[in-house]
Amino acid sequence: MAKSRAGTNGRAKADADNGIAEPAAVAARDGDAESASSVLSPRELRRQQRIEMSREQILDTAEEIFAERGYHNTGLKEVASKCEFSVGSIYAFFDSKDDLYEQVLMRRSIAIESIQGLIPDDVPADERLVGLAEIQIEHALAHPAWGTLSAEISRMARSRGAVLPEAWIHYNQRVLTFLAEVIERGQADGTLRPGSPVALARLYFAVVTSFILVTTVAKTTDEDGWPTDTEEFLEFVFDTFSARPRHVIGG
């Protein structure tokens, strides 16, 4: 398992550094900004850059406070105060607290297309599930406040009556559909255990997000900065979903 983790970790980090694992919304926004910069005057470009820096500062601050206190215990006044902005300045960028919360969540969400590029279809499905878990853990470690927040809202999504941002619901539906397709293909080639692909996708999603939530709270890491029980967890993922012996990984 250590070989699998190191390989995926290095590949994911390199690809993330090249922007491959960037959220789709951010990538699209950056692409639009690059096109716009070719026609803007230097003065207008500087103004747009100041606006974007202010927006990112608000998102960074809100991410930390939402993660620490939760949605209901966080107010725009508190976010504005920590940013040293007025509440009115927050409304210049975001329509409401709901809008801010949604954009905080979606800003760092890993695009499905990026995941497919990081671990392509020709990787055996059981190893692919392990690799996907590694990517999510690494992403949460790189952005601990967001990792806590996203894992917590994923847990809330399994509670009846929870009201969640529409964009987040849509994103998670896409993730579950993608996972179900991976599992279905793995069942067809004999690498994954039998069972409802949708149910197994939900189980996988719940197990990984719960591990991220617990480890971001515990903050106990090894010399490489990973949660100390990551190896055991990844072995558990393989054993739970694979139809093959564990020793076949990387073989």
Would you summarize the structure shown here?
The protein has 251 residues and is an all-alpha fold. It has twelve helices and no strands.
Helix/strand layout:
Elements: H1 2-17, H2 24-37, H3 42-69, H4 76-83, H5 87-93, H6 97-107, H7 112-118, H8 125-142, H9 144-157, H10 166-188, H11 197-218, H12 230-241
Helix pairs in contact: 1-8, 3-4, 3-6, 3-9, 8-9, 8-10, 8-11, 8-12, 9-11, 10-11
What does this structure look like?
The chain has helices at 2-17, 24-37, 42-69, 76-83, 87-93, 97-107, 112-118, 125-142, 144-157, 166-188, 197-218, 230-241. It has 2 domains: 2-22 and 111-248, Tetracycline Repressor, domain 2 (Orthogonal Bundle); 24-107, Tetracycline Repressor, domain 2 (Orthogonal Bundle), CATH 1.10.357. The termini are close together. 72% of the residues lie in helices and 0% in strands. The longest helix has 28 residues, at 42-69. Residues 6-30 have low confidence and may be disordered. The radius of gyration is 20 Å and the shape is elongated. The protein is built from 12 helices and no strands. With 251 residues, it is mainly alpha-helical.
Number of strands: 0
Number of domains: 2
Strand content: under 5%
Question: CATH first level of the largest domain: which class?
Answer: Mainly Alpha
For the sheet with most strands, the description reads: none
User: Considering the protein shown, what is the CATH homologous superfamily of the largest domain?
Assistant: Tetracycline Repressor, domain 2
Helix content: over 70%
**What integer value in Å does the Rg equal?**
20 Å
What's the rounded overall pLDDT mean? 80
CATH topology of the largest domain: Tetracycline Repressor, domain 2
User: What CATH architecture of the largest domain would you give?
Assistant: Orthogonal Bundle
The computed structural class is: mainly alpha
GO molecular function: DNA-binding transcription factor activity; transcription cis-regulatory region binding
DNA-binding region: 75-94
Organism: Nocardia bovistercoris
Region (Disordered): 1-45
